[in-house]
Design brief:
Elements lengths: L2 E4 L6 E2 L1 H14 L7 H5 L6 H6 L5 H17 L6 E2 L3 H10 L3 E9 H10 L8 E5 L6 H11 L7 E5 L2 H10 L2 E5 L6 H6 L4 E3 L4 H5 L4
Parallel strand pairs: 1-4, 1-6, 4-5, 6-7, 7-8
Antiparallel strand pairs: 2-3
Helix pairs in contact: 1-4, 7-8
Amino acid sequence: MTTLLFDLDGTLVDSSQGILAAFRYSFEQLGLAYPDREELMTFIGPPLQTTFATYFSSPDDIDKAIAAFRAYYDQKGVYETTVYTGVKESLAHLKQAGHHLFVTTSKNQPMATLMLSHLELNQYFTGIYGATASHHHKSDVIRSCLQDYQLHPEDCYIIGDTRYDMIGGRETGVHPIGVTWGFGSRQELLDNGAEAMMDKPDDLLSYFHAS
């Protein structure tokens, strides 16, 4: 059966409330005015190192910003999250149909594991992969999953809502599939190599013959 690698934020869950609050907190802790909501929304998806590097040139300042973000997120933000309508049902059908499901996210791996457990989504996944000290970018996270389970990229699909998921798929030889209910735009996904577009979670069932 097919192996499906799911992004987390904007694909399985709407985590925007907690993430935006954590970004605001980190800017406040560093004594800076935080960007407006429209700009903050663009922060959802990339690794924290990538986002904060656009504001700070000093590695120490980047580390302080990340630490402040996680101080808030670990205590509150991780719980300010909801599962998108139809996701649980679609995951259950895909797993029942024999597909192998993984999570490959740029979110900090312990937080991703905690969130999925809290939302009772972890039961659907063979493995959960996130950002670590040595794996920041989506392609690194995907490669780690592929290597650990000796998966063939041509038999795998990365399902995500931003260009980072599509780029990660292209860089690792995994088929990129875009979803339109998250934080990225349809055009952004297509421009970055999406092979197919899903407009609602149960579209995945017909695409992967699990309905």
